[in-house]
Specification:
five-stranded antiparallel β-sheet, 25 helices, 7% strand, disordered C terminus
Amino acid sequence: MATYLYKLGRFAFRRRHFVALLWVALLTLAGVGAASAPPAGNSSFSIPGTEAQRAFDLLEQRFPGMSADGATARVVFKAPEGQKMTDAGNKAAVEKTVKELGSGSEVASVADPYTGKAVSRDGTIAYASVKYKVSGMELEDSSRDALKESAGHARDAGLTVEIGGDALTTAPETGSSEVIGIAIAAVVLVITFGSLIAAGLPLLTAIIGVGIGVSTITALATPLDLGSTTSTLATMIGLAVGIDYALFIVSRYRAELAEGRDREEAAGRAVGTAGSAVVFAGLTVVIALVGLSVVNIPMLTKMGVAAAGTVAIAVLIALTMIPALLGYAGRTVKPAGEKSKLLGGGRAAKKAGRPNMGTRWASFVVRRPLTVLLLGVVGLGAAAVPAASLELGLPDDGSQPVSTTQRRAYDLLSDGFGPGFNGPLMVVVDAKGSADKKAAFAKVGDEIKGLKDVVTVTPPAPNKAGDTAIITVVPKSQPSSATTEDLVHAIRGKSASIASATDAKLLVTGATAMNIDVSQKLNDALLPYLALVVGLAFLLLIVVFRSILVPLKAALGFLLSVLAALGAVVAVFQWGWLSGLMNVEQTGPVMSMMPIFMVGVVFGLAMDYEVFLVTRMREAYVHGENPGQAVVTGFRYSARVVTAAAVIMIAVFSGFIGSSEAMIKMIGFGLAIAVFFDAFIVRMAIVPAVLALLGRRAWWLPAWLDRALPNVDVEGEGLRTDPDPDGDRELVSA
């Protein structure tokens, strides 16, 4: 592989005009496609294989036109102090608002509070329920604007009006902190390279790669049903890995220049060596992201595949466009150790033999491996302790900041009708095979009334055919509570006895039941997903490092870092530690998809640092150094650039903490803290300590397996034994 990539690097350097035009053409094509694509809403949401989804599908068949999974909104009215909602003036204002709400083209129905018994017992709070024909993710902005405008008219009449429900779902905003993250990355690159030109190359190529990836996602959003969160994730991952991959190749290029090679040869060798690590690091990230499809949640699958595509683009750009741009940069990119005149007065490299920080740190770890290993493991173990209290759930309006109208509507409904009113359960009774359908409906209602934590059970509402009915159940507890989850399981537990007595089928659905099913599905998929991703990456790393223990150590180190990161997420978003600093206004359960998502993304990123750092050690070991010295050599050449890469990735991910979307905020923080733990504790401390303790055993591989594995030559041994693999090397002075 090293020889092939060497040739590719030299070709890109030599034919830089062709390569640059090719990528610019691809960016233009993707941009035109995105600009000409019809505006797409957010993707539809379905959870195949769950009871809640089966109930929605049944409702679509038996209640045509009902839009069972359509968006809902509750416009909540509160009377002024000393008044009631039944007063003539307040009633007139509400009725006028209800009439306005029903005029929208996407509105399926509007329930009047006064005819639907939607006024609280004390008469101070009422609500109008709005049902839409499409889901909240597909609702047009004009419908949301009309909803807000109607509420504004009621406010003008003196009423307090708030709006809850998924009809207000909008695309997340990342805020200015994302730009700050990129700015920090730029500063780190300038410090690392000592040159504005060299620092600008990774940023430029990362932006081009993300531009192609996100534009392609936008162009395909409608036919593939991709949502706005898909682009946000692709941007987050694409920027981070795009900068890092380019950083490693530019750094290796400068190291090759420092050894006296001409620029074309240096570009070829940089792509042949560091580029090999980029390919395998990218493969681990792609495996982790595409592996999200095993969860069988379409939205998560699309997010993973789209982000994986962006990572693949980042790898290709690093291998081709970086050497092309290095050809254009010429002498402005200095050899390692030299700085530009602007930043360092053009001073030459430091004296050879003077140990850098990476060398000194690695030497210390090699001398005290057991102490460093114990401190690292104990520290990560302490950070992981909060993970034992992990509570999973999906966010609802109760988890919104108190400044939002959704949260205020949620609180008003809780005050007027009880906490469980915000999470009603929809019980669907399929009595098509029952001899006495009405008796079956009544039997279900009576059984549910006898359960604990039930406030209200509405009379059955049958369809036109009279073979299916809907019963609404209002729990006593709030939607995200364990008590409500127990109630859902208790109702479903009645299905066997109902079927035996009446030949009717019972299904529980609704937003609360759907959240419970999603959480369970994600929990059930976590171990199979972990086994798949870690197993495939383990096999891949055996090929890369030609070792059993090094990939095993890499996987165990990843588990430590991801558990510590989950502990930090629990401490901030569930316990509320540092919540003010993170702008977390409302603590609560951690999102159900967070553990499985972190496992996928963090594993891919963790393997990046493992590959980049340990391949340098492997290279030194293969070339004759003893194991301890190989660790030090690996750090001498890689520690600075791995540190810079980690800081850049942390800065990019931290930028998404400023998002208005709870999911994006939590993902940004989780990935940032996971990279910190993995890069600076696992890879920089635990990895060299373990390798120092293992010695030559770290690189042991059974002879039969060594013969069976393909030789991918990540270390570039073929380039060392054949100094001119192309056979046509020529000196290039610029």
